[in-house]
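Page 37, continued from 36.
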């Protein structure tokens, strides 16, 4: 079984209003969806109900991305403590 990565990014896509602050903050993780109305979590895994997750060891600028999201639909879980950071 593969080791869990340090953090889990959780993106609730149906709450996204397409402000693209996340892409401005962290373009390596976020991109415009094909439809252009929402963001996509690059290499995110669909967990159903428009919730996408991605495990990472480095947050890069994803704290800034989550903080800058006007509808707070980007969350980050510390997988070592199980705590939600944002
Ligand atoms: S900042 Fe939030 S609302 Fe804006 S595109 Fe990113 S996820 Fe969607």
């Amino acid at each position: 079984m593969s080791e869990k990565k340090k953090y889990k990014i959780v993106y609730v896509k149906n709450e996204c209003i397409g402000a693209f602050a996340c892409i401005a903050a962290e373009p390596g993780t976020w991109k415009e969806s094909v439809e252009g109305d929402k963001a996509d979590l690059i290499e995110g895994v669909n967990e159903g109900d428009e919730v996408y997750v991605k495990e990472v060891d480095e947050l890069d600028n994803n704290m800034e991305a989550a903080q800058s999201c006007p509808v707070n639909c980007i969350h980050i879980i510390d997988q070592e403590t199980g705590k939600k950071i944002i």
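The chain has one domain: 7-84. Flag for discussion at group meeting. Strands lie at 7-12, 30-32, 39-41, 45-46, 51-56, 74-78, 83-84.
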